[in-house]
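Technical note accompanying the year-one report. For the benefit of new consortium partners, we illustrate the data format agreed upon in the data management plan: each record pairs a sequence with a structure-token string. No post-processing was applied to the example shown here.
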Amino acid sequence: MKRKALNSLLLFVLAVSTLVTPCRIVFSADLSENTWTAKTSMPTARVGFGVAVVNGKIYVIGGTVGGADYHWLNTVEEYDPATDTWKTKAFMPTARAYFGVAVYQDKIYVIGGYAGWDESKSVSVVCAVNEVYDPATNTWETKTPMPTERKGACASVVGDKIYLIGGEPAQTSPYPPLNVTYANEVYDPATDSWSTKASIPQSAFSSSSAVVDGKIYVFSSEQNYPQIYDASTNTWSSGKSFPSALPLPNAGVAATAGTMAPKRIYVIGGQKKGSFDVVGSNYVYEPEQDVWSNGTDLPTARSGVEVAVVDDVLYAIGGVEYLMTQPAGSTQILQYIPFGYGTFPPKPEPEPFPTSLVIAASGVSVIVVGVALLVYFKKRKR
């Protein structure tokens, strides 16, 4: 009987001791990182479209179709990465291409753009239209137009404002007026009003942007480095040049958010400045260190590719493989798993147990052992 009691006591003490024994969780890397996978093609071939992400779904909006049947589109198609399927949604009120697109409070703002060609004046027709799409109701609403008509502006959300930077006006010459290409106009959705902020230092057209930690990184056809806007101070700075010796007009730009992969900016595809050579490069920028590296190239080189990010996975959509012979654009969509996917944010080694619980468990152990010994010695005395 005595031995059985002692054995029970020993087992109990061992069980309590496991509560305060340190444990280590090991997280393995996703072996598929830095790879591309083809997905179901989008239904409508086009170029100059915009992409936006709301609640895990990608919306492909507007654009233009070239060739003999050249026209502007108001088509909206929704892609669900979870099921790899497409759906058609409510048409945008104003058919157009090369506009700024941004998401704020789960609504998609489509601003400005290229809306046609005026044969009588031989100029492109650009607009300042500001239309908002609500995926929850599948409806559109018209808001106050931006002050400066333009196409190709970058739209970025920082805080509760939308920043429209750079772009091009209607033009007849190869070089647009400088005031437009330097523009930085800010839209406040809460008041449906516009204001002007510090102009971008170097002209920005055929450009794209991404936001990391409240700063806007603009990549233009004129520079091979990011121009960085700090909305909190209304000031500009420059980042390090990327590996390409030349700027890459019409590259796709997007950033991972640091939820499933480290915060990085990806500059994908485009064309060599001053030529019709299309590239498939995948340059990776780390804003904190201001350094560049190379990711796996696109399987097919493309200019004008648009990049959307869902849960830190990148989707490169559309683009043109041959600038002179493919005016309609590609319908291909490729999924890219970024560097460090699934291992970020870093998981700290868990504490063995909170100190208060360790102390409490130790106290309980002492009391139980003391009571058990007292009972044992009383029985022995009897």
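Partners are asked to follow this layout when depositing records. The helical segments are 2-19, 178-181, 355-381.
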